[in-house]
Amino acid sequence: MQDILVLYYSQHGATRELARLIARGIDSVAGCRARLRTVPKVSTVCEATAPAVPDNGAPYVERQDLADCIGLALGSPTRFGNMAAALKYFLDGTAAEWMQGSLVGKPACVFTSSSSQHGGQESTLLSMMLPLLHHGMLIMGLPFTEPAVVHTTSGGTPYGPSHVAGSQHAPLSDDEKKLAIAQGKRLAEAAKRLAAGG
Q: What is the pLDDT of residues 76-97, one digit of tens each?
């Protein structure tokens, strides 16, 4: 089995749910399995530290997870059209992996959620791609051959899966779910082919 890292930060659970659906798509591809990981919150108190193990959900990511994976799905809620500080903080600390080229040539995708339809989903997805491009990763989106990209009236873009939660934290729509699963499957299929040298 070859691991594909699904790395995310989630504040209210929507991005975590997208991550789980992407993982389901990854797990549907023979020989591939999803490795779900998260990052700790960034504290405004300089001395504060997160517990070594999260209270619930996925374990915290370790540098070895990046080296071990054959592909990466990266997710964050939108923060004024950008990724959340906690995920950016982790990525800012990956200079050693950049120097070693640990992620070069591996496929990657991005996903996000926002509380409003115009909450900056596409700019958040694009901003998450930038460090991945610097790492030499191969960015994958969602093609318009996925019917839900055309039909969605909520989240889901050619840049990657997304969710519009609204102020009431609405559950994912059927189209959003389909696109997250499709993205995971697409990522795993590409990662598997690339890892095999094909």
A: 999 999 999 999 999 999 999 9
pLDDT in tens, 93-119: 999 999 999 999 999 999 999 988 888
Q: How many residues in the chain?
A: 198
DSSP-derived secondary structure for 50-62: --SS-SSSSPBP-
d(CA 152, CA 148): 5
Angle between helices 14-27 and 174-195 (to 10 degrees): 50
| Burial 151-176, CB ≥16 within 10 A → b, else e | ebebbbbebbbbbbbeeeeeebbebb
For residues 105 and 74, the answer to whether their CB atoms sit within 8 Å is no
Instruction: Indicate if the alpha-carbon torsion angle 58, 125, 68, 39 is positive or negative.
Output: negative
pLDDT tens for each residue of 164-194: 998 888 999 999 999 999 999 999 999 999 9
SS3 assignment, position 66: helix
- Residue 89's alpha-carbon distances to 18, 39, 95, 180, 196, in angstroms, are 21, 9, 12, 25, 32
Q: Which two tokens stand for residue 49?
A: 């530290």
Rounded-to-integer distance, Cα 147 and Cα 179, Å: 9
Rounded to an integer, what distance in angstroms lies between the CA atom of residue 126 and that of residue 108?
Answer: 12
The most distant pair of C-alpha atoms in the chain lies apart, rounded to whole Å, by 49
User: Vertex 14, ends 11 and 16: CA angle to 5°?
Assistant: 75
Give the separation between CA 61 and CA 7, rounded to whole angstroms.
7
